[in-house]
Amino acid sequence: MIRFDSVRRGTIGLALLLLASADAQAAKFAGSFMADGGGARALGMGSAFVAVANDASATFWNPAGLLDVPGRQLLIMHSERFGDLIDRDFGSYVHPLGGAEGAESAFAVSVIHLALDDIPFTDGLVDELDTDGDGVLGANEAAQILDPLYFDQIKFETDRELALMVSYARRFDDWQLGGNVKLIRQSVGDFSSFGIGVDLGALRRDWWRSLDVGVKLQDATSTYLSWDTGRNETIAPVLVPGVSYDWTFPAWRLGVEAAGALEIHFDGRGNSVDQFGYQEWGSFFEDVSSNLFLGLETTFSERAHLRFGSHGGFDSEELTFGAGIELGQFRVDYARAGDVLDIDENTHRVSLSVDF
Fold first, then answer.
1. Which CATH number, 2.30.110.10, 2.40.160.40, 3.50.50.60, 1.10.15.40, labels domain 4-355?
2. Which DSSP letter does residue 32 get?
3. How far is CA 54 from CA 49, 60, 70, 119, 189, in A?
4. For strand 304-311 and strand 73-81, is the pairing parallel, antiparallel, or unpaired?
5. Long-range contacts of range 168-171, CB-CB < 8 Å, 24 or more positions apart?
């Protein structure tokens, strides 16, 4: 008898498996479990957080922002992506390092963990499904996997992916600079990989009035993942510039912050994956693509927050929203993202942070 819950989970897993069958395509999505970083606040603002980055989730969004964390802070987050298909957790601890007039540097450690159950291992079954022998599985051919003749031959495994990041930030006059060293471990069934990478970030607060400017160079030197099968994957650098601007209305005890960020890829993903492609600009731009993130946060009485965002588009599934409440040294945040896989399942994220 077919396990329909496994079919549901395995459909996504099979899609990932088929992507991995092409080296060039797989390289574009290597390490994708780290995308969207951590913290419900950032997701609620559409991930337009590179110039905001002033809580413990800054370790991912922009490590230079660690200097704006008000003190020692611990943040933990749990996210269920696409319903309960993918469990993803994030934890971060920030420790400011002294200074007579506030922190001149800061240190942080954070962890990202993702688990996806029921990944199908076909062990040569792809060749049987390729009925026309062209070496490529079409939609109708892949659909045969639900036939008990083929389905019963599948072995289901768990995909576990883990990243450990050690971060440091320091102030240089009006600029804040920071960086991460990250260790990456992935395992699927009996196979595993290891990689190491570096992220760099910079921030300038109040560059003009209340305008903050930030930039992150993710995987600055390219990040290499080495599998014990002999296969190697490369995570290409991603450049993320961004801005934020805030207004305060003391009479209403209201604060508003608007933010934007542009995530720029250089690995030939094109506009079939990303929001914008630039192939028509000439051969120099043929591998360049980008996503625009926009976010808005409103704060009431410095305690309650409402957030809205656009995560790479303006269709309903690309819009995000969130809310948060501060209770003394504790803060709870929630965010919801849309059904980008069109499977009638949304992404929900909850985070808790504590200052001490």
1. 2.40.160.40
2. G
3. 9, 11, 8, 37, 38
4. unpaired
5. 168/63, 168/66, 168/105, 168/106, 168/107, 168/108, 169/63, 169/64, 169/65, 169/66, 169/67, 169/105, 169/106, 169/108, 169/201, 170/67, 170/104, 170/105, 171/67, 171/103, 171/104, 171/105
Cα separation, 181 vs 190, in Å, equals 27
Tokens read off for 249:
């209305």
DSSP E strand stretches across 122-154 = none
CA 18 to chain centre: 22
**CA dihedral sign, ordered 139, 271, 264, 296:** negative
Task: Return d(Cα 179, Cα 14) in angstroms, integer.
Answer: 35
Quickly count: other Cβ atoms within 10 Å of residue 336's Cβ.
Answer: 16
What is the per-residue pLDDT across 283-314, written as a single tens digit (0 to 9) for each? 888 899 999 999 999 999 999 999 999 998 88
Three-class secondary structure of residue 129 per DSSP: helix
Report the greatest alpha carbon distance in the chain.
Answer: 72
* pLDDT tens per residue, range 139-188: 777 777 777 776 666 777 778 899 999 999 999 999 999 999 999 998 88
- Which residue, among 42, 47, 37, has the nearest Cα to 294 in the 3D structure? 47
Amino acid of residue 341: L
Over residues 335-350, the pLDDT tens digits come to 998 755 554 467 889 9
Token digits for 29? 């999505």
Domain boundaries defined on the chain: 4-355
DSSP, residue by residue, 223-278 = EEEEETTS-EEEE--EEEEEEEEEEEEGGGTEEEEEEEEEEEE-SS--TTTSSEE-
Residues 6 or more apart in contact with residue 139 via CB below 8 angstroms: none
CB 252 within 8 A of CB 271: no
| Per-position b or e across 254-288, b if 16+ CB within 10 A of its CB | ebebbbbbbbbbebbbbeeebbebbeeeeeeeebb
Helix (H) or strand (E) holding 197: strand 191-208
Asked if residues 67 and 54 have their Cβ atoms less than 8 Å apart, the reply is: no
